[in-house]
Design brief:
The protein has 357 residues and is an alpha+beta fold. The protein folds into three domains: 3-70, Uridine Diphospho-n-acetylenolpyruvylglucosamine Reductase, domain 2, CATH 3.30.43; 75-224, 2-Layer Sandwich (Uridine Diphospho-n-acetylenolpyruvylglucosamine Reductase, domain 3); 234-354, UDP-N-acetylenolpyruvoylglucosamine reductase, C-terminal domain (Uridine Diphospho-n-acetylenolpyruvylglucosamine Reductase, domain 1), CATH 3.90.78.10. It is 27% helix and 26% strand. The chain contains nine helices and 20 strands. The strands form six sheets. Strands 6, 7, 8, 11, 12 and 13 form a six-stranded antiparallel beta sheet that branches. It has a four-stranded mixed beta sheet with strand order 1-2-5-3, covered by helices on one side. The longest helix has 19 residues, at 325-343. The chain is globular and about 65 Å long. The structure holds uridine-diphosphate-2(N-acetylglucosaminyl) butyric acid. The site of uridine-diphosphate-2(N-acetylglucosaminyl) butyric acid has 20 residues, from helix 8.
Length: 357
C-alpha cells in the first residue's frame, strides 16, 4: 500500500474544508488496514479512519497523524427465507447500495436513500432518516481491533445502538475499524412510511407505494432541504445536521417551557410558542435542534463570514465558498451560546472534528 505525505483533506469531505494529513493511505483490504495501524504505531502518531467524509470537519491546520481512507469494495448476498442478507464492504458508497437493493425490491433502508457517505460509517453513528435507522436491519459488523490486530465479528446487540450512537463512537471509540456490514432486508417488504413529511407525500395515493417511489420521494425531500449532494448546490457543502436533536427528560422540558413562558411574559408578549417535541425513550423527549436554533434568532441563510446556516435547513452549517474550519467553529459557538442562554440546552455537535489537538 502506498503511503503518501501531506495530502489535503478538504476534497475528501463533503464540507470541502480542512488542511493536510501528514500521512495518507488508501486501504483496499483488511491486510492494508492492518498495515496502516502498524505504520501509525511505528511512527507513534494517531491514526484517523476516513470513510465518505460526510460527517467530518477537518481543522485548518490539518492532522499531524496518519489518515487511512477505507476503499474496500464488494457485496455478497444470500437468501434467508423472505430476507436477503447483504454483506457489504465498508468502502462501498451507501446511496449506491440503497439504490441497488431498492431496485430489486428489498425493503428496510429505502428511507435512507440520498445520505452521503460510505457503508462503513453507517453502524458507527447508527445512521438514520425519515423514521428508519440502520440499527433495525444490521445483523453483523466485522471490524479490525486496533489493539490486538485481530478481526472481530459483532452481532447487532453487541453494537449497542442508540440515537446516532453505537459502541464504535462511544465506549469503544477509536478501538475498531469497520470493514464489512451485514444488512437483513425483506424481499417485497412494505415501505416504512412513519415520518410525517414522507407519509404526507403519499397521503392522497390509495395504494401502498413501491420502494422505488419511496426512495425517489425521500431524495426529493432531501434535495429541497439541501441534504442531497448536488453539483453546484451551495447548500450541500455541509456535514448534514451539525447538531444532534437534544434528548431531555420530561421534567426538563417542563422547566424549559416554564422558562420560555416567563421570558415571553416579561417581554410583554402573548403566549410563547410551545416547544415541539417527540416521545423518545420512556420518560424522555426529543426536541428539534433546528427549531431551537431558529427560535434563538438564527434564520435560514444566516452568514458569519464564509460560514453560514443553510438557506434551506437550519440544522446544517454550510461552507458558503472558501470557509475555514475556524469560521465554521465560530458560527457553531455563537449558535450554541444563544441556544444555551435562551433554552438552557447545550447542543451536541454531530460531525467529528479532526484536528491536531
Ligand atoms: N425544523 C425547523 N427548521 C428547519 C428544519 C426543521 O424548525 O430548518 C423543524 C421543523 O419543525 C421540522 C422538524 O424540525 O418539522 C424536523 O425536520 P427534519 O425532518 O428536517 O428533521 P431534523 O430533525 O432536522 C433529522 C436528522 C437528519 C434526517 C432527518 C430526517 C438528526 C440530527 N438529524 O433532522 O439526519 O435526515 O431528521 O429524518 O437527527 C444527519 O444526521 O446528518 C441528518 C441529515
Amino acid at each position: 500500500m502506498e503511503i503518501r505525505e501531506n495530502i489535503t483533506l478538504a476534497p475528501y469531505t463533503t464540507f470541502c474544508v480542512g488542511g493536510p494529513a501528514r500521512w495518507f493511505m488508501e486501504a483496499a483490504s483488511e491486510a492494508d488496514l492492518t498495515e496502516a495501524v502498524s505504520f501509525a504505531r511505528a511512527k507513534n502518531v494517531p491514526l484517523f479512519v476516513l470513510g465518505g467524509g460526510s460527517n467530518l470537519l477537518v481543522a485548518d491546520k490539518g492532522f499531524p497523524g496518519a489518515v487511512v481512507h477505507v476503499v474496500n469494495r464488494g457485496i455478497r448476498e444470500e437468501m434467508d427465507g423472505e430476507h436477503g442478507i447483504f454483506t457489504v464492504a465498508a468502502g462501498e458508497d451507501w446511496d449506491r447500495f440503497v439504490s441497488t437493493v431498492v431496485a430489486r425490491d428489498f425493503a428496510g433502508i429505502e428511507c435512507m436513500a440520498g445520505i452521503p457517505g460510505t457503508v462503513g460509517g453507517t453502524p458507527v453513528q447508527n445512521v438514520g432518516a425519515y423514521g428508519q435507522e440502520v440499527a433495525s436491519t444490521i445483523v453483523a459488523v466485522r471490524a479490525l481491533d486496533r489493539a490486538s490486530l485481530r478481526m472481530v465479528d459483532f452481532s447487532a446487540a453487541n453494537c449497542q445502538f442508540g440515537y446516532r450512537r453505537s459502541i464504535f463512537n462511544s465506549t469503544a471509540r477509536d478501538r475498531y475499524i469497520v470493514t464489512e456490514v451485514g444488512y437483513r432486508l425483506r424481499l417485497h417488504g412494505a415501505p416504512h412510511l412513519a415520518y410525517k413529511d414522507l407519509a404526507e407525500a403519499f397521503a392522497d395515493k390509495p395504494a401502498t407505494p413501491k420502494l422505488t417511489q419511496v426512495r425517489k420521494t425521500v431524495r426529493s425531500i432531501r434535495r429541497k432541504k439541501g441534504m442531497l449532494l448536488v453539483k453546484g448546490d451551495k447548500d450541500c457543502r455541509s456535514a448534514g445536521s451539525f447538531f444532534k436533536n437534544p434528548v431531555v427528560s420530561e421534567s426538563q422540558l417542563a422547566d424549559i417551557s416554564a422558562r420560555v413562558s416567563k421570558e415571553a411574559n416579561l417581554a410583554g408578549q402573548a403566549e410563547a410558542a410551545p416547544i415541539p417535541h417527540f416521545a423518545a425513550e420512556p420518560g424522555t423527549v426529543k426536541l428539534l435542534a433546528g427549531w431551537l436554533i431558529e427560535h434563538a434568532g438564527f434564520p435560514k441563510g444566516f452568514a458569519l463570514g464564509a460560514a453560514g446556516i443553510s438557506s434551506r435547513h437550519t440544522l446544517a452549517l454550510v461552507n458558503r465558498g472558501e470557509a475555514t474550519a475556524d469560521e465554521i467553529l465560530a458560527l457553531r459557538d455563537q449558535i450554541r451560546k444563544r441556544v444555551l442562554a435562551q433554552f438552557g440546552i447545550c447542543l451536541e455537535q454531530e460531525p467529528v472534528y479532526l484536528s491536531g489537538s
